[in-house]
TrEMBL record:
Coiled coil: none annotated. Divalent metal cations. Prefers magnesium or manganese. The lineage of its organism: Bacteria, Bacillati, Bacillota, Bacilli, Bacillales. Belongs to the malic enzymes family. (S)-malate binds at residues 363, 392. Keywords: Metal-binding, Oxidoreductase. The keyword Transport does not apply. It comes from Effusibacillus dendaii. The active site is at residues 114, 169. This is Malate oxidoreductase. It holds the Pfam family Malic_M. Residues 12-86 form the ACT domain. Its cofactor is Mn(2+); Mg(2+). The keyword Metal-binding applies. One of its GO terms (molecular function) is NAD binding.
């Protein structure tokens, strides 16, 4: 299996070049000799003496970028004005904005969208708050709520550092499913306070997507909010990840010709994502599931402070084995990583059963470098966009919320999650299915639609949809 991935960084070097000293050929050869790969050149300003160019160069990492700056600065006719990072440029001023749906063209429009006529709509909502689903953005808006305590695999980096990820999620909600989403990063880690704040802002939202909140607090926060709110509350790192993982597992098992109930699965990282993925794996029929975290294999001989680990040990590990990952993974069919980089080695993979399936899903760096793992595995997947088989919750959260909002579901239940997983798996047809293609691309436009349709059906079937099927969504004022 050939894995290709993008080079590390794409930097834009703004250079002032003295016409008398420096030709473009000379510039290109300095960059080439320093190992840089020029991918674009723009002319910014030309005078008789100088030309200012933006040269976009792929480099392997920041140090490599600095080496190129040094190489350029040793040349008398070249001045490095500035170096910018294309990724940072995409974040300048944030990535989302609020756009009105109606243009206010005259005083008549103004009097209707705002005062005085808006008052009648306010009164209608005062009389019947459930009309917020018809007459406000509640109908199609989700809050992406984080306290910044488990941002990707970067850990507790705080609410400001969480903003770029939450803005990214908001963008993806809109682009893939037409759902409006707003990032809400909270400057508190106190579960009571988080529950209180989310409850207080809930009137404006049709759903709450909890994101990157560390375990085990995330379990309590989600449970309490689910109980106390009548809109879907969905911890994406738990359930979005679990839905997509199950879709990938269904298809990977088909590729290797094994049945789910016969698989031995090892999950490393029994945190938010690991627990939910494990529950989904059990619900799908897997019997031999073993969890590993920092203390080693979770087993019934130990007492854990983390209550979830005690629950986990009681419901998995049928032979109650103990030890390390090396002990757990011997003879395993599937490795699922939701922990951090460097956890899995080639020796571990070599000890797995025939046709190993490795889902190294930690972000941004997987549990093993896929290029190292590749010669030893049958099916390899990561959470990243720059490798094949991307198992990432972005395949789930836009479509599952689109469906839940459409039928005005009061919750997102197990039936809806299983329907979403099967829908994602079904996008890859039997003819298309292969080691390199177990999961549809996040850019496959069908995914959000098939997921939302399956979710709507499951919501009606399980009795949590509140919108009558015949309700076209218009507003009856009498
Ligand atoms: N591909 C995807 O769609 C998703 C990937 N993830 C990734 O999964 C990882 C975990 O995320 P969360 O569950 O939200 O975090 P979390 O903080 O709730 O859980 C992480 C767990 O991994 C354990 N862990 C970390 N390093 C370990 C090691 N070396 N050995 C054994 N256990 C270790 C921790 O003790 C903790 O229990 C992150 O890297 C995150 O980016 C999370 C959600 C979705
Ligand atoms: C993808 C995602 O939600 C995470 O890595 O946390
Ligand atoms: Mg996340």
């Amino acid at each position: 299996m050939a894995i290709q991935h993008n080079v590390g960084l794409s930097l834009i070097f703004r250079l002032e070049l003295l016409n008398s000293n420096t030709t473009f050929g000379k510039l290109a050869s300095i960059i080439g000799e320093a190992g840089g790969d020029i991918i674009a050149v723009d002319v910014i300003r030309v005078t008789r003496e100088t030309v200012i160019r933006d040269v976009t160069i792929n480099v392997s990492n920041r140090d490599h970028g600095k080496q190129i700056v040094s190489a350029l600065e040793t040349e008398p006719g070249i001045k490095v004005i500035n170096v910018s990072d294309r990724t940072f440029l995409m974040h300048l001023g944030g990535k989302v904005e609020v756009t009105p749906k109606i243009k206010v063209k005259n005083r008549d429009d103004l009097s209707r969208v705002y005062t005085p006529h808006v008052a009648r709509v306010c009164e209608a909502l005062h009389e019947d708050p459930s009309k917020a689903f018809q007459l406000t953005i509640k109908r199609n808006t989700v809050a992406v709520v984080s306290d910044g305590t488990a941002v990707l695999g970067l850990g507790d980096i705080g609410p400001y550092a969480a903003i770029p990820v939450m803005e990214g999620k908001a963008m993806l909600f809109k682009q893939f499913a037409g759902v409006d989403a707003f990032p809400v990063c909270l400057d508190t880690k106190d579960p009571d306070e988080i529950v209180k704040i989310v409850k207080s802002i809930a009137p404006i939202f049709g759903g709450i997507n909890l994101e990157d909140i560390a375990s085990p607090r995330c379990f309590e926060i989600e449970e309490r909010l689910k109980e106390e709110l009548d809109i879907p509350v969905f911890h994406d790192d738990q359930h979005g990840t679990a839905v997509v993982l199950l879709a990938g597992l269904i298809n990977a098992a088909k590729v290797v010709g094994k049945k789910l109930e016969n698989l031995k699965v090892v999950v490393v990282g029994i945190g938010a994502a690991g627990v939910a993925c494990s529950k989904m794996i059990l619900a799908a029929g897997v019997k031999n599931l073993i969890g590993v975290d920092r203390p080693g294999i979770l087993n019934r001989n130990e007492k854990y402070e983390n209550e979830m680990w005690s629950w986990y040990a009681a419901h998995t590990n049928p032979d109650n084995i103990t030890g390390t990952l090396a002990d757990a993974i011997r003879g395993a069919d599937v490795f699922v990583g939701l922990s951090g980089p460097g956890v899995l080695t080639v020796d571990h993979i070599r000890s797995m059963a025939q046709d190993p399936i490795v889902f190294a899903m930690a972000n941004p760096d997987p549990e093993i470098d896929p290029e190292l793992a590749e010669p030893h595995v049958r099916v390899m997947a990561t959470g990243r966009s720059d490798f094949p088989n991307q198992i990432n919750n972005v395949l789930c959260f836009p479509g599952i919320f689109k469906g839940a909002l459409q039928c005005r579901a009061r919750t997102i239940n197990e039936e809806m999650k299983l329907a979403a997983a099967r829908a994602i798996a079904s996008v890859v047809t039997d003819e298309e299915l292969s080691e390199h293609y177990i999961i549809p691309s996040v850019f496959n436009k069908r995914v959000a639609d098939v997921v939302s349709e399956a979710v709507v059906e499951a919501a009606y079937h399980s009795g949590v949809a509140r919108r009558e099927r015949w309700d076209a969504g218009s507003s009856n004022i009498f």
